[in-house]
């Protein structure tokens, strides 16, 4: 398994860079993960989505799809694409340290 280092901690990731073990993630890692995705600054709205993604993963074992994210996170789909332009569910999952949601390409 490949590893990556975020906030000074080595973590196990898959070939696409998603965490294999979400318990290794900390909020201190999120800015580095975001920068790797081309997101320079994490705003409060980014954090709202990131925390929602982690909560959904903890409850259901997978992150939500974009459709569900837009309906249940309190952040409209249009804004989700502004926050995470390369694909909200996939990018937000990576920054949140959870596996890629089912159904994401």
List keywords for this structure.
single chain; 105 residues; mainly alpha; Arc Repressor Mutant, subunit A; two-stranded antiparallel sheet; 5 helices; 45% helix; globular
- Morphology: globular
Structural class: mainly alpha
Nearest-integer average pLDDT: 93
The share of residues in extended strands comes to 5-15%
Count of beta strands: 2
Order of strands, widest sheet: 1-2
Instruction: Catalogue the unreliable spans.
Output: none
Distance between the termini: 21 Å
Q: How many domain units?
A: 1
Question: Mind telling me the CATH class?
Answer: Mainly Alpha
The CATH topology is given as Arc Repressor Mutant, subunit A
Superfamily (CATH H level) name: DsrC protein, C-terminal domain
Question: Can you describe what's shown?
Answer:
- This protein has a two-stranded antiparallel ribbon.
- It has one domain (3-96): Orthogonal Bundle (Arc Repressor Mutant, subunit A).
- The protein is 45% helix and 8% strand.
- Helix 1 runs antiparallel to helix 5 and helix 2 crosses helix 5.
- It is built from 5 helices and 2 strands; from the N terminus they run E-E-H-H-H-H-H.
- With 105 residues, the chain is mostly helical.
- The protein starts with a strand and ends in a 9-residue tail after the last helix.
- It has helices at residues 30-36, 44-60, 66-72, 77-83, 88-96; strands at 3-6, 9-12.
């Amino acid at each position: 398994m490949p590893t990556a280092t975020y906030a000074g901690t080595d973590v196990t990731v898959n070939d696409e860079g998603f965490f294999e073990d979400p318990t290794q993630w900390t909020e201190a890692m999120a800015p580095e993960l975001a920068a790797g995705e081309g997101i320079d600054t994490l705003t409060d709205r980014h954090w709202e989505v990131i925390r929602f993604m982690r909560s959904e993963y903890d409850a259901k074992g997978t992150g939500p799809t974009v459709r569900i994210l837009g309906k249940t996170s309190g952040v409209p789909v249009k804004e989700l694409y502004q926050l995470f332009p390369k694909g909200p569910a996939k990018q937000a999952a990576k920054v949140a340290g959870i596996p890629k949601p089912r159904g994401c390409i």
